[in-house]
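Morning. Coffee machine broken again, so started the prediction first thing and wrote up yesterday's gels while waiting. Chain of 257 residues, entered below exactly as on the submission form.
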Amino acid sequence: MHLKANYHTHTWRCNHATGNERQYVENAVKAGLEILGFADHTPYVFPGDYYSGFRMEMGQLPGYVDTVLGLREEYADQIRILLGLETEFYPKHFEELLSRLREYPMDYLILGQHFVRNEYDAPYNGLGSRDESLLKQYVRQSCDAMNTGCFTYFAHPDLLNFQGSRELYRHHMRDICREARSCSVPLEFNLLGLAGGRHYPTRDFWELAAEEGCLCVLGRDAHSPEALLDDRTEQRALEILKDLGITPMETVRLRKI
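Came back before lunch.
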């Protein structure tokens, strides 16, 4: 198997990715991809003076849309380019966000739950924690997000870095897998985390996903054009998933917002 599609691609607007959009497209073509989806971190409007520095600002959204749509037209005979966003589910602000995003021809959203609650009132989920209440909140909020029907898939669902009891971790995280299966939301095996030796992908989580029969998709989570050419990490991922009895999907069904 060779990756046909990557739906998880960032741009310089998130303030922690390199390269320009054309370089991503050129490398996607070189890699033999049939589909390249841009899904940069969605802008969010927060109250007060809180600033989220790892995402584009709302004023940058029109330029993002125009750039992706322009490349879609230019490269139409070489690759299918999709317009998406990686989005958190923040209960207080999600409906307002959707109303803004619906002004644009978005092809899809992927869920990337980097924080619980509403971000400005919670710690980053990737930090190590032994707090069971944080684990339970992450699971509850992720399940609520999938039930909105707005998300095409769930990026790095094992981002929460719980360092407590593995039995406790498996007990609660199984609910995410069951909800994902119930909602037919694929779970992303994240190649950025694998390549970087991060705490995710987490073996415990993916054993649960295998047991629950979850849909799986590979996501490069590309923050540089070079990431689209990283065949070695792709092959490592396929070997791990094969050992678990999981066959990743070649393409996913897009869910409109």
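Residues 7 and 37 are 4 Å apart (CA to CA). Going to sketch it on the whiteboard this afternoon.
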